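Now read this:
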Amino acid sequence: MAKITKLSISQLSQQCDSSQFKFNSTAELEILPTIIGQTRALEAVDFSVNMSGDGYNLYVMGPTGVGKYSLVRRFLDQQAQSRSPAVDWGYLHNFDDPQNPTYVSLSAGEGRQLRDDIESIVLNLLDALPRALDDEYYRGRMRSIDEASRKHRVRMFGSLQSEADKKGILLLRMQDGTYAFAAKRDGEPMTADEFEQLPVDQQEQTEDLIASLHEELQHTLLELREWERANHDKVTALNDEVALEVISRQIDTLRYAYPKNDRLQRYFDTMQNDMRNNVSAFIKSEDVIEESSINSSESLQRRYQINLIVDNHDCHGAPVIYENLPSHQSLLGCVENMAMMGALVTDFSLIKGGAIHRANGGYLILDAEQLLMQPFAWEGLKRALHAKEVRFDTLERMYSLVTTVSLEPEPIPLDLKIILLGDRQLYYQLHQLDPEFGELFKIVADFEEEMLRNDDNHLLYARLLTTTIQAEGLLHLNKQAVARIIEHSAREVEDASKLSLHQGNMTDLLRESSYWAKKHGAKLVAEQHVQHAIQSRISRLNRMQNELYEQIKRATIRIDVTGAVVGQINAISILSAGDYSFGQPSRLTANCRYGEGDILDIEREVELGGDIHSKGVMIMNGYLGAKYARNTTLSMTASLVFEQSYGEVDGDSATVAELCVLLSAIAEVPINQSIAITGSMNQHGHVQAIGGVNEKIEGFYDVCRHLNFTGEQGVIIPQDNVQHLMLRQDVIDAVEQGQFHIYAIETVEEAMAILAGLEIGELDQDGNYPEDTLNHKVVNQIQRWVDVHKHEKDSHSDEDD
């Protein structure tokens, strides 16, 4: 007879005994220095961070909520303190080639200081240059130049006037500033009428004299122009000398402040020359209004000021940056434009740095999925890593979308580690589809999702709870609450011997438990508060489950939990609605008749059955053929269907149920409807583990409570799933009171023994099964179909003859 194993109370849930804890509340525990259970991942992170060489960037993989970011960020923050300190990055105006601004790097905080220093220098020059070009010393030298020029002019025109006087000619200065000669009489110029009254020969003589004097005037004016040009050069030299003295005095303060930065020293030289050539921009005329002066100051600040794209004044150690939206622009920076008089213009002050600039010299953490979702961001990141420099390549120019002239800033050298956070599937897809991924991300840190459950790890988990409680500012737990959370953790990971490392869910449970404790006026979170939080979460999510059970109760969805029926069985499936999953009993029926040996899976025929479900049906077909028709044709056609199923069916957890209902239909043996079953199988009839075993048991239990709870109902599960049981307390109580039963099986024969209440039957020495056994009934029915097939075949042969 097949072995029937009914599970005991101790097998239904591995309780956490709170007496093992020597503390009364988590307030007595020390916080953890790092996340528990992630030794392998931590070693990979440590290796990647400290390994030099190209491509040793890191991909951290694991499901959301296991603490990938927390562990990596905490580790990098510690490592950053021992690394070279962060630097400031900025761009400076290129006076020789404005379209190609030059970069400069400074120690952390120096960028902000340089910005303040340059602002002070420009403001000082706006004040000092006008004063230097208007003081008594400058005026005295200007007067000397002007006086020498005036005396030279007087001397030259005096000489010309003397020559004219000797010839009786008068030198006149006209209203428009030109000079003219005229004949004179009694020291006054003659009028035209008076000149006409002179004898002709005297008129001609006077005209000749005037013509000769005109030539001398032209020579004098030419000499005066040369003199004035030289005089202007003297004034320019004086202005340049005075301005240079003022400018160099200011620039020297910058030179002395940053003596070791060669790039800055070169910039200060070109900055000084540009200021010498643009002294007029610093001079405010008396009639210039205040607003114009302000605009002039802003323009000069814009021209000479550093564009500080990375300011690390408050960064201690190497930078650690997390970019939550890694678009091409936010990751690699951009050159912005501004509208001016209907046109878009730009300059070096509109260069904006990205996350990769801020993380340069340190670490950049990115979400892999978010990175790949942003157009061109992944390609841009790879280009930067390959080239080891960051270019400001706008997408418009890269893809020839616009042809406007833009800046080409000098590329900044790149030295950083990239840490990508993502799931496993994405990692394998990138490895398969992108050949460059493996070259750039040689290290992977694979996060564990669970850890072994024992007394030592229970204490570690309690310390993890303490760490989270202190970080979140929550109420502490008593030890009974700690034990309940540990049990819930094992339930989440679907393994009584393991603990879940999903920190997101754990933190949420702590927050909600603390909320209910505060609401009830408690100073510590107790077990009932944790249970209240768990139940409240279920209540918020189980609307669909309640509606489904209501339809079962009203017989809209037909489920029998009493009696016995041929070719009908209660299978159990899992339904998921977001973060919530629950078990749903489903009526599975089978029909059999004489045929060609095909098993018709109706779900597959109407394309509602998934590949794994179809595989399970084929395995079942193989088992039937090997078990009952090894030496003959299985002359049978059967059909299987999940009744009232209108969605896709997948998975192989109903394979044992399908085989049992099919054997029931073949042997015409009724199946006990008070027992539901779940489990997969192999071709030899061995039952295999399935997922969601707790939800499936509880799902059938809940349906029985809604319909007709007789105390005879139960669930059959694979023996391999016993280790995964962490059932609800009400189900455990029902089992303890003998009102609900849970069976564990290893073979299909054990399942049929429970469901049909028959001996399975073993082959005797003659190769026959004992009468009144299940196998005897199955074989007899199959033999009848074989005989029909043989009779038909013989009839066809006679007709052919």
